């Protein structure tokens, strides 16, 4: 137990040093493996186990035993099918293979922009949610009952899963910091994601630009509130913000509709003492100068782009991770995979402000060669010393 505690303290210090702007003893590893990966890796039925989560601990044990990371690799899912079924969800539906899928839907009609702008919260509660969740499309009394059942199911699973991962964190000596504490969205992404849909929002910014801009500004306070973790302010907390739409819109639209409210979100959270962890989805290379303007030590997990340029432009101010292509773990030899890890370390590690991670989450067990994955993680743990 003493050795495990010492290991946990050492791992925790790696992240503290990075977040405090110091060069750590070695590059920390923050690789989370998805619930779907974990279940498939343990050779269990994906659909069945998501309905019977009491048996997940033995599945997560296999991850902890077989993959070297500094944070707990076992991640519970926020998309538990039970509460979605109780709500009659249209936005997240389990496929026949057991994966939770997100169809392209919208919950806000174009003629309801003014109503939304006047009171985003009320419009969400009264119009949007009953459309997305069909069991809420009923009288106020029944709606309250459905909401209460779904809310309890969600929190029962979340608390149970949290206790389970905490046991594994202590058992295997993982750092309690470095992961995600809470999630919010960039205001424009929130409008695009489920309110208007990706397709509709791209048309709206041409046909109704003033209404889109007003709606994005109106919803920003809700996104800020959603991004405040439950714990007191800390340099070691983390608000996760996945960034969706920016690479798919024109530069002038990004500058007008996306950037101001997104920057306000990150700035406001930082001012309250809550750093943000951005998943910089797709290719943001044309927006690097914007990202530089975010509060110092904002954490940025990159999917695509040129790591050398990102390190040069952002690496002295912000904390970088990502870039390593998980596709190589499937197609490459073990040595090629290790060589790629060395390349990423050589580019991104100098001076600190780097956390090792892949370019995206690993969703299925057959999307990678698990032996390559193990070899890469072992190499980083043993060779990424400063």
Automatic annotation (TrEMBL):
Highest taxon of the lineage: Bacteria
Q: Which GO terms describe its biological process?
A: porphyrin-containing compound biosynthetic process
Pfam families in UniProt: URO-D
State one molecular function term (GO). uroporphyrinogen decarboxylase activity
Q: Which InterPro entries match?
A: UROD/MetE-like_sf, Uroporphyrinogen_deCOase
- The Uroporphyrinogen decarboxylase (URO-D) domain is annotated at 184-382
- What is this protein called in UniProt? Uroporphyrinogen decarboxylase (URO-D) domain-containing protein
SUPFAM superfamilies per the record?
A: UROD/MetE-like
